[in-house]
Amino acid sequence: MAYKKRIDGRKFDEMRPIEAKVGVIDRAVGSSYFKIGKTIAYAAVYGPRELFPRFMQNPTKALLRTHYNMMPFSGSGDRVRPGPSRRSKEISLVTKHALEPVLKLDDFPNAVVDVFIELPQTDAGSRCAGICAASMALADAGITMKDLVGAISVGIVDGQVLVDLDYQEEAFDGIVSDVPIAIIPSTGELTLLQMDGQISKDDLMKGLEMGKKAITQIMDVQRAALKAKFKGE
């Protein structure tokens, strides 16, 4: 096993430092800022509002739309090409599916709720940071939710199971597997499980347990940010 010590000195089950705030964008109905390590995500919620064109309306519930975007010079690797891409569309879709199980969208028939996620700086874990930010922004907007959603990446670097891989670890010259997950803490339900690379069943289960513990810590930060705003701190 070549990877015996993490490049940045963290323990194998240790996340990068986390910061979170809500109510950071004045004209949004709800908004948030979420930072993990050097990865920064802003989320803004607009709506519920009437959905146009009307043929897209659902008389039983609102439509959730998510829009994920990495700014051109945000990445730790190559420059990101401006505008929509296959990757941004895919992450927008999985973000939508990760958030929908906690939202009570039937309160708003024929409406739409738009969530815009912008990443001005990234160092891996961008989709997970975006989900965490979006979850907080929806709560800030007053949308009825069963719980918040927390997300983190787990994976393998040269045989070692880790939580919260950074860019250097994703680009490590060896066997690397990256598994982004999102969890509803109150139920333990997985709302996102993807994989880039290969991982054994035993290592995956170990990684999921590490991820659940990490998301419990993320949830504490998310809740503290929301309480701080509504207490006027």
Keywords, separated by commas or semicolons:
9 strands, 4 helices, about 230 residues, single chain, alpha+beta, globular, Ribosomal Protein S5, domain 2, 5-stranded mixed β-sheet
Overview of this protein structure:
With about 230 residues, this protein is α+β, with helices and mostly antiparallel strands. Helix 2 runs parallel beside helix 4 (about 200-230). A five-stranded mixed β-sheet has the order 1-2-3-5-4. Strand 6 and strand 7 form a beta hairpin. It has four helices and nine strands. The protein has helices at about 85-100, 125-140, 165-170, 200-230; strands at about 20, 30-35, 40-50, 65-70, 110-120, 150-155, 160-165, 175-185, 190-195. The protein starts with 17 loop residues before the first strand and ends with a helix. It has a single domain, classed as 2-Layer Sandwich (Ribosomal Protein S5, domain 2).
The major pleated sheet works out as: 5 strands, mixed
Specify the structural class. alpha+beta
Q: Which percent bin holds the helix content?
A: 25-40%
Beta strand %: 25-35%
Number of E strands: 9
Overall form: globular
Total DSSP helices: 4
Order of helices and strands: EEEEHEHEEHEEH
| Unreliable residue runs | none
Q: What is the domain total for the residues?
A: 1
- Please, what is the average pLDDT? 94
Outline the secondary-structure elements.
Layout (H helix, E strand, L loop, with lengths): L17 E5 L7 E7 L2 E12 L12 E8 L15 H14 L11 E11 L4 H15 L9 E8 L2 E4 L3 H4 L5 E9 L4 E5 L7 H30 L3
Parallel strand pairs: 4-5
Antiparallel strand pairs: 1-2, 2-3, 3-5, 6-7, 6-8, 8-9
Helix pairs in contact: 1-2, 2-4
